[in-house]
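Minutes, structural biology subgroup

Action item carried over from last meeting: produce the structure token record for NAD-dependent succinate-semialdehyde dehydrogenase (Cellulomonas composti). EB confirmed the sequence was re-checked against the source entry. Recorded below for completeness.
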Amino acid sequence: MTDTRETELLAHVPDGLFIGGRWRAAQDGDELAVEDPATGEVVKRIASATVADGVAALDAAVEAFPAWAVTPARERAEILRRAFDLLQERKEDIALLMTIEMGKPLTEARGEVAYGGEFLRWFSEAAAHLQGRYGPNPEGTGRMIVTQHPVGPCFLITPWNFPLAMATRKIAPALAAGCTVVVKPASLTPLTTLAFARILEDAGVPPGVVNVVTTSSSGPVSEAIIRDPRLRKLSFTGSTQVGRLLLEQAAHGVLRTSMELGGNAPFVVFDDADLDRAVDGAMAAKFRNIGQACTAANRFLVHRPVADEFARRVTERVRALRTGRGTLDGVTIGPLIDDRAVRKTGELVDDAVRRGATLRTGGAPVDGPGTFYAATVLSDVRPGSAILAEEIFGPVLAIVPFDDEDEAVRLANDTEYGLVSYVYTQSLARGQRMIERLETGMMGLNVGVVSNAAAPFGGWKLSGLGREGGAEGIHEYLQTKYTLTADP
Ligand code: NAD
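Output recorded by EB:
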């Protein structure tokens, strides 16, 4: 049940599509229901865009592009900075909204507001520092000028697991670069994006520069936008399966694409690691966001001499976690996003146990309303178990022992993904070897959370294309022009 504060907050969240600076209903009046995964109750109904609405949003982005592209960078930067400030003012509301629609504990939702907000600040600074190059060509026969230009109208598709940060990580660099955008949040968690669009509106983003389409028809609405020849860029965060499909659609218009896809992160603990730190890191890397993060540690590879002790200590910590609605004090494990996620988590655990893993704690859905699965530890997970190959996306810590460094590297790289890897060792030489040997876009060395607005976030192999954040992030939304001028 939502309380009075929640009811008031939900009533203030816009329920329309945001197109060309106006909030409006879907053309056919269609709506979608947003549920609280901790209770299963519908908390709000909002507009569900048709294909025509999606195209109207692109029309608005196309129309707004020429003026926004030449708006002085300092002005674009100041709008982003105002959005950052407004987000700080409304951080409690945005955090609570995320907890209601997505389920993460409130303290983590506040953490996401802090993390997500940093992209606004970082890219407001980056906008004002964009530069080109000028210089003589090597032959001395001319001058080369290299300039950067916004790619054009962009389509940004975000997932449900980080409703704010995945939006700011795309919208902030796009706007900083001078692009206009159509944003399509996940239909499971659209409210945070709508509340954030209101912040952008209040911060002075001109009409049409940011447009939001919420829809329960993601496939057709997205495809119409992606196949429209006026679109110049697609940025997607979500599953590899959907990413592949969208890349096929994007091939038609030879779109610039950024793909932040799935992960299967190894968390490697060597026998020379500081075990206290490794256990702390494991808890963060595994149970943050109820395990529903692309960066979540999926496979705990532990050196055999410390494997038992590591399993004992994490099991003790996991037994002390508190499961419940994320708004309740002390709750560390919220609900999974839906029934499907509970079923899938259960299937992976059951398969691992059937193949010989030891179940140390948890191992079952939690009775009652909401979609909860108990925090779980499995040790001695056997090769061939599905849990080692697939993204778990649930609160399950699976331990596999290894005997030496070569085996650790082989197991860590034995995945089609390559988003992030975590390594715990006190040996500098070993740490350096692991940096060189692991096939991964990001690495946490003696640390369990790597995300930072100043860092290039992204993966190798099936984990995606491109980088978000850092100096690299804005270049995803810029295209290069080289001009040769005759010798003066
Ligand atoms: P998903 O692929 O099901 O959905 C992502 C988004 O795509 C949502 O907005 C959804 O509505 C939309 N979508 C679904 N089908 C579509 C279609 N046919 N056409 C267009 N859009 C479509 O993923 P999810 O379940 O929302 O998110 C979880 C996945 O996202 C995991 O695989 C996770 O690893 C990944 N993820 C990756 C990162 C990263 O930065 N690499 C970050 C967060 C999540």
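Discussion: The chain has a mean pLDDT of 97.
Next step: EB to file the record with the rest of the batch.
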